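for ur thesis appendix - Altronate dehydratase. copy paste whatever u need, i formatted it the way the template wanted (i think)
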Amino acid sequence: MLDFIQLHDHDNVVVALKDLSKGQTLTIKEEIIVLKDDIKRGHKVAIKDLFINDHIIKYGYPIGHAIKEISVGEHIHTHNIKTNLDGIQEYQFHQKLNSNPYENKNLTFNGFKRKNGNVGIRNELWIVPTVGCVNGIAERMLKLFEKEVGDIHPFENVLVLKHNYGCSQLGDDHENTRKILRDAVHHPNAGGVLVLGLGCENNNLYEFKDALGDYDEDRVKFLVSQEVTDEIEAGVELLKEIYAAAKNDKREPVPLSELKVGLKCGGSDGFSGITANPLLGRFSDFLVAQGGTTVLTEVPEMFGAETILMERAANSEVFEKTVELINEFKEYFIENKQPVYENPSPGNKDGGISTLEDKSLGCTQKAGTSTVTDVLKYGEVLREKGLNLLSAPGNDLVASSALAAAGCQLVLFTTGRGTPFGSFVPTMKISTNTPLSETKPHWIDFNAGVLLEKESDIVLNDFIDYIIQVASGELVNNEKNDFREIAIFKTGVTL
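the 3d part is after this line
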């Protein structure tokens, strides 16, 4: 393995690929550089002398400016670099579209076709509570249902989408809860859903039902706990009705164009923008070439790289929606008296990320080079195939839940630090470095760290094959461990 990598010819930094020692020499374009500090893997080294306010360039773009003089061979990190970001910006549409480097290979996966034409990659039975008060009741219903019908049933998993909302909420928070839960009811990974209410909550079940629109009455049932004597017994009977409707469900080949995949990163490190995120970007372009759909979210982690996405807007309408996406999220920070640039976590910084631009330029690589076809507000469902942007925060569980609610059957989650969580759809963990994959094989599903040693096309083909296997039923670690959660974005007052 090489000691370091220069990501772009214009960069004035290189990134250490392994721990380097003070006094060690690096040869860069026939110039010998002596390290003046110990450099941890994933961290940056200056390869040019920099003065105060000089831009520090990585990926070919500024990631901040020097706040003190920096000499060749010095460590560049939070002690000598500061973000360039500050507040709301005005943007101009300068479209720069790319040709897709991949061709349609007419690939398929084995999924579940739904009556409305959607396709699931899982066939699960869900209870969706309208309010957190009935979470415990829902769990008891599922346990009794499984006890009575036995182990052999058409559902690959049974799950309560537990949350603590549905009451004591106002305005946008209340509507966000309703939207995300409605989206979950319609999700194609669910072969059946019981919507379970209490009876006195703000998120009234009958209003919720009216807002659902069209649904399969054989697969979606409703129960208000306060309106029956034995809610457990009544719920189990409804679950059995769903079971009867789903008993003949089976997988069948469907085109890869039916796959909708969320793109997410968390616990990022200095390798995120070198290995795992570029791998997702290449996969995103590949899936788009097959007629499929990918979704990029984490709006605060677009700050500093947003113009790259804006240039790829399909038209002026999509451009304006992208501008609104960025500036509305910045306004959210400002309204709450928080700086728009205070994003990299302690783990990010320890892994080598110094500023939000540093993080964002790595993060947005998950979107590849494809044209942005649409922009979704939080809680909206996919309308267009191709690469989409979705409004949601960077928080891992909130953003992953939003991707699932938008209609993604699968979330691809890159990480340099590691995390075990899962959303209510399969949440595949892709490590940015090999040591993480070796240390946490029960968390990590695919190791992108091998990109430092193998040809990228070989790794991409292996990755595509693995995703097709997962879409066809192979479990990822969060499913094996039964780590499944839903989190809903909250911004306002709790009564």
